[in-house]
Amino acid sequence: MSNQARIMRLNQEIWRKDANVSWLVTQNVTYRNQIDECGQSIYELEKQLEDILERRKAMDSKLIELEALTEGEGSPMGRIQLVEAGLLESKVLNRIQESIMEVRNTQERAIIRMKAAVNDMDRKANQIEERIEERQAKQLHLNQLLSTNQANIQRLKYEITVARQTIRTL
């Protein structure tokens, strides 16, 4: 093969590799943007998770207080027990007993609603944790792709340099 043909082949190789480097650099910009978006998304999801966990903690303490009022030996509602004494007293006591039972039922419904809300918060927290894990995995994958592209860019640049030196020696 003549030097002219070799130079032409090397120039085509340089052009092809240079185009490949440009494409890899463009792809790296895209990867960096996606990595930044993942980082921002992770930050926002962690804030949401923190907010949910704080609200859940507050709700847990309220639930404990409400359960202490309604259930258990030390609860005021648990200790109230009216006994029928006489006819007149019985009517008054029945009304008081009905009122107490109504309050107790209201508190029990509130406990049920709060427990459902706590379960809903747990479900949301789990979903957010899963989304955070997905974003972190995507971010790791993008970082690996970026690293691979960087290595390929360096290799191609080295090969271009070698090809140019070969042209100069010819």
Short précis:
The protein is mostly helical and 170 residues long. The protein is 91% helix and 0% strand.
Fold and architecture overview:
With 170 residues, the protein is mainly alpha-helical. It has one domain (3-169): Helix Hairpins (Orthogonal Bundle). 91% of the residues lie in helices and 0% in strands. It has three helices and no strands. The longest helix has 83 residues, at 87-169.
Query: CATH topology, anyone?
Result: Helix Hairpins
Q: How many helix segments? A: 3
What is the chains' assembly state? single chain
Helix/strand order, N-terminal first = HHH
Quick one: how many beta strands? 0
Tell me what portion of residues adopts beta-strand conformation. Answer: under 5%
Query: How large is the radius of gyration?
Result: 36 Å
| Structural classification | mainly alpha
What is the CATH architecture term? Orthogonal Bundle
Which SSEs are present, and which pair or pack?
Blueprint: H1 3-70, H2 76-79, H3 87-169
Helix pairs in contact: 1-3
Name its key features.
170 residues; Helix Hairpins; 91% helix; rod-shaped
